[in-house]
């Protein structure tokens, strides 16, 4: 692509943005996750182990999210515009897959009275913990809620959603670009969903492939564009997998915790 | 305000303006995209009537973006994010074409002569980044400082060299 074609392309995007701003904002508000727990479950299930592959950068990015013999600990802020909609924290270990995700605070947390909600997966069972009612709900594999029941767009668990997006395949490596003054490697995945062309952009460190952030966007038929949620990884660390750290993959329960089996 | 017409009239000249003010094609493309995104996002605030007033308004936005870049060491992307826009990644070939259009090699030559006016830490950073064209990570490594500090030194250096860069950039901006 030469410079003229490059400028023509950006000019078309600019034109669309100039003529669709109001409708984009309204639609984007509608796409904000309304019930984090339900969406978290749906998104989490979609991330159960699956195949995939691709060029080295994509494989390295997946490896950074799920290394052998270590626990990946991440804190992710899900943002819409300048608002932090939902901060989440996740501990993840591979082989066998097990993880725990905690949601607390943010816009949605304030709406639900500052409630802490956690989900965890191990031994083919998905567990959901509501600190407000001190109740653990356990789904056995045969009764797991169907994946994809809610829009797959960081509805509740950005960390799990990242792995799910990379596992779906067809990820494109855009190479190293500059974002907010930082060199990042941009990985992009596009698909069609609910009548929209959905675009998932994932930024990783160009050398270590550690997650940095990204966003989701949508294009309606006819080319109208909407910005979806953004996410920023505020903490990424790998912890040794030992008996003490294994406890991080489980809920902090109390003696009074109730259990509900589904 | 017809933003499409404004874009068509000024897209080339504004990019050259920014390349010659930053001596960095990637940064210039970021600032260029953000400037037009700002123009779209705030077009209802424009009160002028003539093409000249529109051009002045657009270059005013660009200069504010430049000032922020000099201060912070990286280009803002606030309006791009607000509009859901993304600057497409540029290939090496495209970056070379941008450099040629902006006659960046000539500017680099002029800059290397003007560097002697700067303090040593700033001069070293500008020399490595702009004249030797090293990535910021290598500049930081060479100077044994962090990458943000390297960016800050380069942008401070460029701001100090604005006397050299300004007349060229303004002439180009006003002859289109």
UniProtKB/TrEMBL annotation, chain A:
<keyword id="KW-0472">Membrane</keyword>
<keyword id="KW-0812">Transmembrane</keyword>
<feature type="transmembrane region" description="Helical">
    <location>
        <begin position="30"/>
        <end position="48"/>
    </location>
</feature>
<protein>
    <recommendedName>
        <fullName>DUF3108 domain-containing protein</fullName>
    </recommendedName>
</protein>
<keyword id="KW-1133">Transmembrane helix</keyword>
TrEMBL record, chain B:
<keyword id="KW-0805">Transcription regulation</keyword>
<dbReference type="InterPro" id="IPR013325">
    <property type="entry name" value="RNA_pol_sigma_r2"/>
</dbReference>
<dbReference type="InterPro" id="IPR007627">
    <property type="entry name" value="RNA_pol_sigma70_r2"/>
</dbReference>
<keyword id="KW-0731">Sigma factor</keyword>
<dbReference type="Pfam" id="PF04542">
    <property type="entry name" value="Sigma70_r2"/>
</dbReference>
<protein>
    <submittedName>
        <fullName>RNA polymerase sigma factor</fullName>
    </submittedName>
</protein>
<feature type="domain" description="RNA polymerase sigma-70 region 2">
    <location>
        <begin position="6"/>
        <end position="72"/>
    </location>
</feature>
<dbReference type="InterPro" id="IPR036388">
    <property type="entry name" value="WH-like_DNA-bd_sf"/>
</dbReference>
<dbReference type="InterPro" id="IPR014284">
    <property type="entry name" value="RNA_pol_sigma-70_dom"/>
</dbReference>
<dbReference type="InterPro" id="IPR013324">
    <property type="entry name" value="RNA_pol_sigma_r3/r4-like"/>
</dbReference>
<dbReference type="InterPro" id="IPR039425">
    <property type="entry name" value="RNA_pol_sigma-70-like"/>
</dbReference>
<keyword id="KW-0804">Transcription</keyword>
<dbReference type="InterPro" id="IPR013249">
    <property type="entry name" value="RNA_pol_sigma70_r4_t2"/>
</dbReference>
<feature type="domain" description="RNA polymerase sigma factor 70 region 4 type 2">
    <location>
        <begin position="109"/>
        <end position="161"/>
    </location>
</feature>
<dbReference type="Pfam" id="PF08281">
    <property type="entry name" value="Sigma70_r4_2"/>
</dbReference>
<comment type="similarity">
    <text>Belongs to the sigma-70 factor family. ECF subfamily.</text>
</comment>
<keyword id="KW-0238">DNA-binding</keyword>
